[in-house]
């Protein structure tokens, strides 16, 4: 059954052949970058209380490599894929549902519920709330013309520059730490889960909401780009756009890496006085992060077209198909590893050791995801989210005869 035939079968979900496997691979590789940056900057040290120190020697080298290659880029790529996912879901739901937008809003509502539980019960670095909230805003544009979406993207790129124009915006976007770093370490190193829970709740009220104020233009821009990427057809037929993919990969990765290298050199060698960044620097930062992420995505699509390399790169597909489960599992495992009610490693490991732990864990997640998907159609959290979205239990085991949705 091909994709078109599957969509013509009517009311029930679409067959597996309709799935875009390349998206799974890109999402699985982006998950690695998200994991590494979360580990180094948000589990190894208190997330909202101090910047991640680069350390010395090998720690310094690893930290700087992660900043140049992954910081904000992996999460940006993940957000772009989320926007593409919204467009895919709407396109496929429209083929069989009377009210596809209502179904998509329901999907985002339950994502918000997962995010709130994740934030308050597990970890203060949750991104699901952001995806749910700004995904709902993106729905306002999802059926608009390409011109309207491009204008909205341009506006989102320019908005962060307001930070330097208004003292009030500066105070909102750059609040003092929610607690001195030593106090935050004491709380997270404590053995009481309830103390950490109360502290996370305090952070949510005083600080975490400010992060949404700061990053909403960036997140919305990424999702709108993802909608346009899916609309362009490049994910459906990458072989027809190889020249565009090559230029995107080259320009994105080369130009995108230039700005973070420049920032490291300027801030570490010349030590400019502290203060809010200039509008041009903010715009350059968000623009280069975006083109770097697009360069990564294009590069992965090109590698998948290579026979030998493509097989290795495609091994990330199971991780991408279970990205929701793998992301939440990372939070559960590493909050236990670093917080005091578990092994209490927060503030005790350097960047290099933490990165090594992340690489090993990512490989283990890849093995687990591959084995799991031999027996089940979805990861457990993907299945729960899907069942809640449709209001009925979805087929779970692979031997189930029912054709299922893969949007």
TrEMBL record:
Q: Which domain of life is it from?
A: Bacteria
**What positions does the domain DUF418 occupy?**
230-392
InterPro entries, sorted: Bact_Transport_Assoc, DUF418
What Pfam families does the record point to? DUF418 (PF04235)
Q: Where is the chain membrane-spanning?
A: 25-45, 65-91, 103-121, 127-142, 149-170, 220-237, 244-262, 282-304, 324-343, 355-373
Q: Which UniProt keywords apply?
A: Membrane, Transmembrane, Transmembrane helix
Which PANTHER family does this UniProt record tie to the protein?
INNER MEMBRANE PROTEIN
Protein name per UniProt = DUF418 domain-containing protein
Species of provenance:
Pendulispora brunnea
């Amino acid at each position: 059954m091909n994709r078109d035939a599957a969509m013509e079968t009517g009311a029930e979900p679409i067959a597996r052949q309709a799935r875009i496997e390349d998206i799974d691979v890109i999402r699985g590789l982006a998950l690695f970058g998200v994991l590494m940056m979360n580990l180094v900057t948000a589990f190894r040290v208190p997330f909202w209380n101090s910047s991640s120190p680069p350390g010395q020697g090998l720690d310094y080298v690893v930290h700087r490599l992660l900043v140049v290659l992954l910081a904000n880029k992996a999460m940006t790529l993940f957000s772009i894929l989320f926007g593409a996912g919204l467009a895919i879901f709407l396109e496929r739901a429209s083929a069989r549902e009377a009210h596809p937008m209502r179904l998509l809003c329901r999907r985002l509502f339950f994502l918000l519920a997962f995010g709130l539980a994740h934030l308050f019960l597990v970890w203060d670095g949750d991104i699901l709330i952001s995806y749910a909230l700004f995904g709902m805003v993106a729905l306002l544009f999802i059926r608009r013309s390409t011109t309207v979406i491009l204008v909205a993207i341009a506006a989102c790129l320019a908005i962060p520059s307001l930070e330097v124009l208004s003292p009030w915006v500066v105070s909102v976007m750059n609040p003092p730490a929610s607690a001195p770093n030593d106090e935050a370490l004491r709380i997270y190193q404590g053995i009481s889960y309830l103390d950490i829970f109360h502290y996370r709740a305090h952070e949510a009220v005083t600080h975490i909401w400010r992060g949404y104020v700061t990053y909403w233009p960036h997140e919305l821009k990424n999702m709108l780009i993802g909608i346009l990427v899916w609309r362009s057809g490049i994910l459906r037929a990458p072989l027809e756009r190889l020249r565009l993919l090559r230029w995107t990969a080259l320009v994105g990765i080369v130009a995108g890496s230039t700005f973070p290298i420049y920032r490291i050199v300027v801030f570490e060698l010349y030590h400019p006085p502290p203060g809010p960044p200039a509008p041009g620097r903010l715009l350059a930062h968000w623009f280069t992060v975006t083109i770097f992420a697009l360069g990564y995505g294009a590069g992965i699509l090109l590698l998948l077209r290579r026979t030998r390399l493509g097989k290795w790169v495609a091994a990330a597909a199971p991780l991408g198909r279970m990205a929701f489960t793998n992301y939440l599992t990372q939070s559960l495992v590493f909050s236990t590893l670093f917080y005091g009610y578990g092994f209490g490693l927060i503030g005790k490991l350097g960047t290099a050791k933490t990165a090594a732990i992340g690489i090993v864990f990512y490989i283990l997640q890849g093995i687990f995801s591959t084995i799991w998907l031999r027996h089940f159609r979805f990861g457990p959290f993907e299945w729960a989210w899907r069942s809640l979205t449709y209001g009925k239990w979805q087929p779970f085991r692979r031997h189930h005869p029912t054709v299922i949705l893969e949007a």
